[in-house]
Each structure stands twice: as structure tokens, then as C-alpha cells.
Design a protein that fits this description.
This protein folds into three domains: about 90 residues, 3-Layer(aba) Sandwich (Udp-n-acetylmuramoylalanyl-d-glutamate--2,6- Diaminopimelate Ligase, Chain: A, domain 1), CATH 3.40.1390; about 200 residues, 3 Solenoid (UDP N-Acetylglucosamine Acyltransferase, domain 1), CATH 2.160.10.10; about 30 residues. The protein is built from four helices and 36 strands. Strands 7-10-13-16-21-24-27-30-33-35-36 form an eleven-stranded mixed sheet, covered by helices on one side. The protein has a nine-stranded parallel sheet with strand order 6-9-12-15-20-23-26-29-32, with no helix packed on it. It starts with a helix and ends with a helix.
Length: about 350
């Protein structure tokens, strides 16, 4: 593929020879002749005078003449967003492999009541419950289990070893990675007089809207009643716990090891970084960012960035953190002030005694 052909697909301005052939992609510090790379972060501009790449994707905002460069500079492709453009080129050179070959594996268990649309692919040792339905071109990979009455939309991919419990609904173009459980029982137990706990029936379902991606080894609990709902376009990292009756708004992104307690509502367009913990029965507003390892003990009612345990507005948390870091010095100052006050007190008492 020539640079000119790549530029057409990513709407790039070419500075240099667009006829050069490109056979691969690489990081700027590792790229070789015949490969294309990109710069999305200013700190990587220093590699322009040493990279062996034949072409570099950069932002249109960068003044090319001011960049460091080797004697024979690489061809430059200027775009609005170099990172997004590079991801597009990455997919061009590395199309995703097929999860399964066409067809249904003979070891799959499929009751007569199951409804399969055109071009569905089903792997080895898959077990489908009664009255399941799977949309066109969807893939259910090896050893995955769908309970009774599960519904899956079009162009959805379930990787190996996934469990989707009874009654749950998954939309179109959803991707779920291995080891995830959708529709496990919510954590509900009622304390008894004798100190034991009685299990509360979990009669609801999980609904996953279109264009969601869920990482490996996540647990998304079914509702006690009603729905646990994952909104359209949500992206969940690996190792995330979503408890019963939680609602996650559209296009929210959540990083690994985050735990969301029951009946919490997370707004749209939120970002939850790694190891965030949220108590139950609270609400998070739209467009909220929560920094890593923060604890959320109450509702967040306005958009913004929050950090800490308990979480506070980011700027306030940083000021508190600065004070905490200086506590040893502040303690020394307090001790010195106490000593000085004691010295002044003793001196005053001595003066009064002498005057008597």
C-alpha cells in the first residue's frame, strides 16, 4: 500500500513522496524503512531525527518546519487527530482474525426452541438454553453457556468461556471477553434472628445495550427485581464488579478493578479510573471523571473531576494531599511553638515571683 493510498483513507495532507510503498507499522523509536508511525505526544517529537520510518502521521497543528529531522526526512501525513488516524491504519494492516469459522460445531447443544439468524457461528461445547435467540452474524465461541430465554443482537461476539444467565438481553455489536459472567445472582441476604442469613431471590435480569465492550473476568449481577442496565457504548475493562440494579449511562468508560455497589446510577459520558469503589444507592452525574483508587460514599451531583477517599473535587483533594505530605514538618513546627510558649510562660512566672 502506498502512502498516497493511506492518506486518502485517513484524510491526510502529504508532505513528501506519496508514492513510497508501506508494508507495516511500528512505534516511532522502533520503526524501520517501509513502515509508518505516528506522533500524538509532544515528547516523541525528538525521535524524528533518528527514526528510520518511511512515513509519520502528525497533527495538522504542528509546524513541520520546527520539528527535529534527519537528513532525509520521512514523509509526513498531517491529520486532525494522529492517534485516531494511526488506529485506523493499524486496523488496515492488521484486520481482526476470525473468532470462529463459519457454521455450528457438532458438539454444541442447541434445543429446537432456539432461534438462530443467518450466518451465526457457534463453537465447540457451547450450550444454549431453551428459547434463546441469536442475531445475524453473531459469534458464540467455545464453551460459552447461555441460559434459557437469553437474547443476543446482531454482530455480537462472545469469546470462549462466558456465561450469560437466564433471561438476560445483549444488544447489537457487543463484544464480551472470556471469563465474564452476565446475570449472576445479586448479593442479597437478609439477616435472621439466629445470626444466619436468608438468601433474597434475585428475579431480575441484565440488559446490555448496543455497542458495548466488556473485558475479561467481569461480574455483572442480575437485578433483585427489574434490570441491571449497561448503556449504549459503555466500555468496561477487565475485573469489574457491577452489582444488582446498577445503571451505567451511555458512553461511560470504566477501568479495571472498579466495584459499583447495588442500585447505584452512573451517568452518561463518565470516566471511572482503576480501583474506584462506589457505595450503593447513590447517583453519579453525567460527565464525571473519578481518579484512580477513589472512594465514593455519597452522590456526586455535578460534572467535574473527583479524587480521594472520600472523593472530593480534584483541586481540593490536591490541596489536602499537599497538607498531608507536609504533616511531619507541621508537627515539628507545632512542637517548637509549644516549647516556645512554655519558655515564655516560665519566664513570665519567674518575673512575677521576683517582683513579689
Amino acid at each position: 500500500m502506498t502512502i498516497h493510498e493511506i492518506a486518502e483513507k485517513i484524510d491526510a495532507n502529504i508532505i513528501g513522496d506519496g508514492g513510497i510503498s508501506i508494508h507495516g507499522i511500528a512505534k516511532i523509536e522502533e520503526a524501520d524503512a517501509g513502515e509508518i508511525t505516528f506522533i500524538a505526544n509532544q515528547k516523541y517529537e525528538k525521535y524524528l531525527d533518528s527514526t528510520r520510518a518511511s512515513a509519520v502521521i502528525i497533527s495538522k497543528k504542528i509546524d513541520v518546519e520546527k520539528l527535529p529531522r534527519r537528513e532525509t526526512p520521512p514523509v509526513v501525513l498531517q491529520v486532525d487527530d494522529p492517534y485516531v488516524a494511526f488506529l485506523f491504519v493499524l486496523r488496515m494492516f492488521n484486520p481482526p482474525p476470525e473468532v470462529l469459522p463459519p457454521g455450528i460445531h457438532p458438539t454444541a447443544v442447541i434445543p429446537e426452541s432456539v432461534r438462530l439468524a443467518d450466518d451465526v457461528r457457534i463453537g465447540a461445547h457451547v450450550v444454549l438454553g431453551e428459547n434463546c435467540s441469536i442475531g445475524a452474524r453473531s459469534v458464540v465461541a467455545h464453551s460459552t453457556i447461555l441460559g434459557d430465554n437469553v437474547r443476543i443482537g446482531e454482530d455480537t461476539t462472545l469469546y470462549p468461556n462466558i456465561t450469560v444467565r437466564e433471561g438476560c438481553r445483549i444488544g447489537a455489536r457487543v463484544i464480551i471477553h472470556s471469563g465474564t459472567v452476565v446475570g449472576s445472582d445479586g448479593f442479597g441476604f437478609a439477616p435472621q434472628k439466629d445470626g444466619t442469613y436468608s438468601k433474597i431471590p434475585q428475579t431480575g435480569i441484565v440488559v446490555i445495550d448496543d455497542d458495548v465492550e466488556i473485558g475479561s473476568n467481569c461480574s455483572i449481577d442480575r437485578a433483585t427485581m427489574g434490570e441491571t442496565r449497561i448503556g449504549k457504548g459503555v466500555k468496561l475493562d477487565n475485573l469489574i464488579q457491577v452489582a444488582h440494579n446498577v445503571t451505567i449511562g451511555d458512553n461511560t468508560v470504566i477501568a479495571a478493578q472498579t466495584g459499583i455497589s447495588g442500585s447505584t446510577k452512573v451517568g452518561k459520558q463518565c470516566i471511572l479510573a482503576g480501583q474506584v469503589g462506589i457505595v450503593g444507592h447513590v447517583e453519579i452525574a453525567d460527565n464525571v471523571t473519578i481518579a484512580a483508587q477513589s472512594g465514593i460514599p455519597k452522590s456526586i451531583k455535578k460534572s467535574g473531576t473527583y479524587f480521594g477517599y472520600p472523593a472530593k473535587e480534584f483541586s481540593r483533594s490536591l490541596r489536602i494531599e499537599a497538607v498531608i505530605r507536609n504533616l511531619p514538618e507541621l508537627m515539628n513546627d507545632v512542637q517548637n511553638l509549644k516549647k516556645e510558649l512554655e519558655r515564655i510562660k516560665n519566664k513570665s512566672e519567674d518575673t512575677n515571683s521576683s517582683q513579689e
